[in-house]
Structure formats: structure tokens, C-alpha cells
Specification:
Layout (H helix, E strand, L loop, with lengths): L11 H4 L8 E5 L6 H11 L3 E3 L3 E2 L14 E2 L2 H9 L3 E7 L2 E6 H9 L3 E5 L2 H11 L3 E7 L3 H11 L4 H15 L7 E4 L3 H16 L9 H8 L4
Parallel strand pairs: 1-7, 1-8, 2-7, 3-4, 8-9
Antiparallel strand pairs: 3-6, 5-6
Bound molecules: adenosine-5'-triphosphate and the ligand Nc1nc2c(ncn2[C@@H]2O[C@H](COP(=O)(O)O)[C@@H](O)[C@H]2O)c(=O)[nH]1.
The site of ligand LQESDW3C has 16 residues, from strand 5, strand 6 and helix 5.
Organism: Novosphingobium album
GO molecular function: GMP kinase activity
Function: Essential for recycling GMP and indirectly, cGMP.
Length: about 220
Amino acid sequence: MPKSAPSSAPSPASTGTLTRRGLMFILSSPSGAGKTTVSRMLLEHDPDICISVSCTTRPPRPGEIDGKDYHFVSRAEFDRMVADEEFLEWAEVFGNCYGTPKAQVKAGLKEGQDYLFDIDWQGTQQLYQKLERDVVRVFLLPPSIDELRRRLTGRGTDSADVIAGRMDRARSEISHWDGYDYVVVNDDIQACFEKVKKILEAERLRRARQTGLIGFVRELMQPGG
Ligand SMILES: Nc1ncnc2c1ncn2[C@@H]1O[C@H](COP(=O)(O)OP(=O)(O)OP(=O)(O)O)[C@@H](O)[C@H]1O
Ligand SMILES: Nc1nc2c(ncn2[C@@H]2O[C@H](COP(=O)(O)O)[C@@H](O)[C@H]2O)c(=O)[nH]1
């Protein structure tokens, strides 16, 4: 029969005590493979993770909302933020600049907030170098190059030139797949989402993250407790 917890040690879950730092859950892929789609599904189904909203100099696509999808900023404003070290990481992608604002994420992690990042491999490397222990890196692959082209075209948000540029970059982006902890092929969207969700759930339970449980475990181990 399993031993129950001593009555003097209420479980951290039941008391709502913080049991770990937040984690940084990164989704990367070649453009069009489906990170935004999977991110939206995660955010919809998991109230305990929130998105890190990036700054970008790219113009908004139809339907994109400033402050929700991105903070759309001018090049001059982006350069100022770089100079003032306001980014945790930043990179130039497809001729535009993208960056992760530092302030909100750093404070939230301390309070146990998990963050989702839809960023490229350059940003992933920078976050890993700075905050290795908090980072979980997931790379999505398309089922084929033809399907990637179909998805970019079918999305209907980019001109033929932009799509051609993104297709040109796809192979070199895929070559960075070995810089990730997990790799998931996004063939069926629901199956892909379920796999990504399981990765997040398992990573939350890593012993090394659950430093807040140390006191609880010590109490459980007290003789005669
Ligand atoms: N498994 C899937 N099967 C079919 N279509 C998909 C699948 N996943 C995503 N899509 C579609 O493919 C298109 C591209 O997806 P999405 O915008 O999520 O890609 P992305 O990786 O975020 O691209 P980008 O890096 O350019 O922002 C969208 O129209 C989306 O609905
Ligand atoms: N290094 C970073 N890359 C980012 C960030 N925000 C988005 N991205 C990546 O840029 C490309 C293009 O995005 P799109 O929205 O213009 O299609 C894609 O790979 C994103 O993941 C960021 O803050 N830093």
C-alpha cells in the first residue's frame, strides 16, 4: 500500500505553494511548418503558459494585432531597444528584425510563470546560452518540402516573392534541427499538438526544476512524521 503524506505536511499542490521556476518553452521550425498554429492551440488549452510577445520591424499581416501577435516597431525603435539592452535575444530573419523583450519574461520566470516562444534557431541559441536550465527546445518539421510550400501558399498572407524567400531558407533552417531537445513532425495537426503538450507536461515535472519541493520531500522522509 502506498504511504500517505504525514498530516503535518500538506502537499504543495493543495496549498498552492510555488514549487518551481517557470520554464521557457521554445517552438521553432522553418517558416510555414506550423509553430504559430501549435502555439495558439497550446495557449488555448493550457492556462499555465503564456506567450512571450516579440517585437518586430516586419509590417503586420492582415488580422495580426499589435501587442498580441507582435509589438510592431520601427527600425529606429528596434535599434534603440538593442542599444539599451532591452532584448533577451534578437535576430534578423527574412530581412526583418525580431526580438524578445527582457523585462516581463525575467520577472515572470521567478514567479513560476511558463513562457512560450515562437522564435527562430538564432534566438534559441541565444536563450540557451543565457538561461540554459530554464529552456526547453522543440523543433517542428514539415512532412515534406512540397507540403511546406502548400502551407505557405495556402496561408494566403505573403506575396509570391516572400514565399519564395522563405522556401529558399527552409533547408538551411531545417539544418539546425540538431540544436533542439525534441523534434516533432507536424503532419496531422492534432497529433502534433498532443505530442508537444506531452513534452511540456513532462518537462514541468523534471526533478531539477522542482526545487520548491525540497522542503516537502524532507518532511515526507522524516521518521515517524
Ligand atoms: N498539420 C497541418 N496540416 C495542414 N495545415 C497546417 C498544419 N499545421 C499548420 N497548417 C497550416 O499551415 C499554414 C502555416 O502555419 P503557421 O502559420 O502556423 O506556420 P509557422 O511555422 O508559424 O510560420 P511562420 O514562421 O512563417 O510564422 C497555416 O495556414 C496553418 O493553418
Ligand atoms: N530570434 C527570434 N525570432 C523570432 C522572434 N519572433 C519571431 N521569430 C521568428 O521569425 C520568423 C518569421 O516570423 P513571421 O511571423 O514573420 O513569419 C519565424 O521563424 C519566427 O519564429 C523573436 O523574437 N526572435
